[in-house]
Amino acid sequence: MQNFLGDYECSIDSKGRMLIPSRFRRLIPADNDNKFVISLGKEQCLNLYPLNEWRDDVEKRLHQLPPGLKKRKVIRFYSKMSRHVESDKSGRIAIPRKFLEVINNPGKVVAVGLLNYMEIWSFDDYRDISMKIENDFQKLEWEY
What we know:
CATH architecture: 3-Layer(aba) Sandwich
Strand content: 25-35%
Number of strands: 8
Distance between the termini: 20 Å
Number of helices: 5
Order of helices and strands: EEHEEHHEEHEEH
Shape: globular
Strand order of the largest sheet: 1-7-8-4-3-5
Mean pLDDT: 91
CATH superfamily: Transcriptional regulator MraZ domain
Largest sheet: 6 strands, antiparallel
CATH class: Alpha Beta
Structural class: alpha+beta
Radius of gyration: 16 Å
């Protein structure tokens, strides 16, 4: 399992490509073959999973859902709102246009490590949510 931590500002070029931060690229196992799955996040962001983590986490959870309508709806959502992407030799991924539209076509984004995957936020949305995160954390009933 990767351990993506931290947040890094990244630019989106005119072709919709983002350079995955080098600190994150170093954590991706060689057997991942530069393959990722990008999907719509639950908030106003995108989720980027190395393919091995997608299989070990998301696919496993989807298969564990009990048969029925709820399972089909969840799988349809992930099928519709997820795409396979590959990084090039420079470590860039091409983010599909419809995904960029979801986060308002920013020129600058923030890649945030969430242990086994990354979130991609527009710079402005991440700045706004960062302030809220710090305030909310103080109210949590969780200690480490």
